[in-house]
Amino acid sequence: MQRSWLLIIALVFVMLALRPVTAAEKVIKMSTTTSTENSGLLDVLLPEFEKDTGIKIKVFAKGTGAAIRDGMDGNVDIIFVHAKAREEQFVADGYGAYRLAVMHNDFIILGPAADPAGIKGMKHGSEALKKIAEAKASFVSRGDDSGTHTKEQALWKATGLPLQTQRTEIVVKGQKKGLTFMYPGGLGEWYLSIGQGMGKTLTFADEKRAYTLADRGTYLEYKYGKQPAVELDILCEGDPLLFNPYGIIPINPKKYPHVKFDLADHFAKWLVSPKVQAIIARYKIQGQQAFYPDAIPEAK
Amino acid sequence: MEFLFDSFFSALLLLWSIDPELVEIVSVSLKVSSTSTIIASLVGVPAGFLIAFREFPGKRMLITILNTLLALPTVVVGLFVYAFISRRGILGVLDLLYTQKAMIIGQVILIIPIITVFTISAISRIDERYRKTAMTLGANALQTAWVIIREARFAIVAAVIAAFGRVIAEVGISMMLGGNAKGFTRNMTTAMALEYDKGEFVLSVALGIVLLTVSFGLNIFFNYVQGRARV
């Protein structure tokens, strides 16, 4: 008697485990950047989207490089990242169906209040970096191939300083491929390339009283939303070069027929609708507007 | 899947061309991990010896605690040390965080229990008659200890090798306390974690293969040392 009960219970468990995902449950997978995730914006948008459409989104937050890689491998249905040139390349290569501009925020150069390189109030991001390099003041770089790292490299190029490159050769698909790493010198001395996410980079810079480049959203979160707060101040902001646009890209069903393009397409179009653009404009981190809608700029 | 083959050839290419970045991270790994293994051995072997030979209240409890610490997660060690050496911690003024020294401190804490526990078990296995014989032959306490250690040396060396394997393969402490700064605290495991995060799977696995190659070389060396010691 007891054994048959056990058998029934075991069977129920097996059936629960093997139960197919019901057709009514619509789920898509999205890879995005840690900065999007850390900002808390998705916690507002995704429940709203589910309420509107019944579609659930599973989020995988990583660096932009890894998020794009997920898209190239067909691991996800859609990507939401911020490295415009690479996103356009991604679409041109046939991995992405299209790219829609969703919103932007901006990058800021942070540093300790003592400001040993004397960059406070400078208008141009690249000139500020140049002064930091000349003073050999500690600078913490994401160094992880993320959107922020891509932006930082563009700024170093704009300084006109002689940059150094390191090249590592590997084999990809039977062909030799070179991976290059660019830096302004002083590697491991004043230029600290740590290969970690935005939050860790802020903590690192705070610990070492160093300069760093960060997106405003993550900075606000770490400055006003965390205990203990990072003791870093905004020393340079407002340069158009410091602009940080976010794009949404559904994966191309011609490349990967298994992706749920219809649902992903639905989400992308929903993000740029007037209603959602207004939600984005209203979203605040510690009382400050964190993102500026790009699809419908007048949505204030 | 095919990236695994690419990784294998990439590893060969990296080793063959003596890639300067590879040399850098391998030397950070070897320097930090061998230093921490040596320090931990200097603490762990005598500690294991004392615990094995002395009878004291709470001995069984202490051994149970040490056995539990074998499962110590690297992240816990990392956070524990972080609390002390962060700029806001009591040792903050020493500016230790995100240096190789910090990595060594964390790794030493991680493997002291391993070396101690294995030393205890190695020594407990030595026949009590060795000790008695040595003492009846007129050996003093130190000489007796030496006899026992000589008898247990293979098991003790095995403990040290296991501990070294643990630290050279760990990533949590190196990442949290070293900070993965390129050219300074980046070692093989944090480099692998980074390449994975960047989506460069080929390089990540290639580094893994290099790590195993380096460990293989070291183990051959240890084997040789043990073999010589036997003669």
Give the tags.
heterodimer; A: alpha/beta; D-Maltodextrin-Binding Protein, domain 2; 2 domains; two-stranded antiparallel ribbon; 14 strands; B: 231 residues; mainly alpha; MetI-like fold; 78% helix
Superfamily at the CATH H level of the largest domain in chain A? Periplasmic binding protein-like II
Number of helices of chain B: 11
Q: Helix proportion of residues of chain A, in percent?
A: 25-40%
- Number of DSSP E strands of chain A: 14
CATH fourth-tier homologous superfamily of chain B: MetI-like
Distance between the termini of chain A: 69 Å
Would you tell me the overall average pLDDT of chain B? Answer: 90
- Strand percent estimate of chain A: 25-35%
Instruction: Round the Cα radius of gyration of chain B to an integer and report it.
Output: 20 Å
Uncertain segments of chain B of ≥5 residues (pLDDT<50)? none
Relative helix content of chain B: over 70%
CATH architecture of the largest domain in chain A: 3-Layer(aba) Sandwich
Description:
The complex is a heterodimer of chains A (300) and B (231). Helix content of chain A is 39%, strand content 26%. Chain A is of the alpha/beta class and 300 residues long. The model of chain A has no long low-confidence stretch (mean pLDDT 90). By secondary structure, chain B is mainly α. Chain B has one domain: MetI-like fold. Chain B is globular, with a radius of gyration of 20 Å. The chains are: A alpha/beta (300), B mainly alpha (231). The interface between A and B is large, with 35 and 36 residues.
Chart the SSEs and their pairings:
The complex is a heterodimer of chains A (300) and B (231).
Chain A (H helix, E strand, L loop, with lengths): L1 H17 L7 E8 H6 L1 H13 L1 E8 L1 H9 L5 E4 L2 H9 L7 E12 L13 H11 L3 E3 L5 H13 L4 E9 L2 E9 L7 E3 L4 H11 L2 E5 H9 L8 E4 L6 E8 L10 H11 L2 H9 L1 E2 L2 E2 L2 E2 L7
Parallel strand pairs in A: 1-2, 1-3, 5-8, 5-9
Antiparallel strand pairs in A: 3-11, 4-9, 4-10, 4-11, 4-14, 6-7, 12-13
Helix pairs in contact in A: 6-7
Chain B lengths: L2 H14 L3 H34 L5 H11 L4 H12 L14 H25 L3 H9 L4 H11 L1 H17 L2 H7 L9 H11 L2 H30 L1
Helix pairs in contact in B: 1-11, 2-5, 2-8, 3-5, 4-5, 4-9, 5-8, 5-9, 6-7, 8-11, 10-11
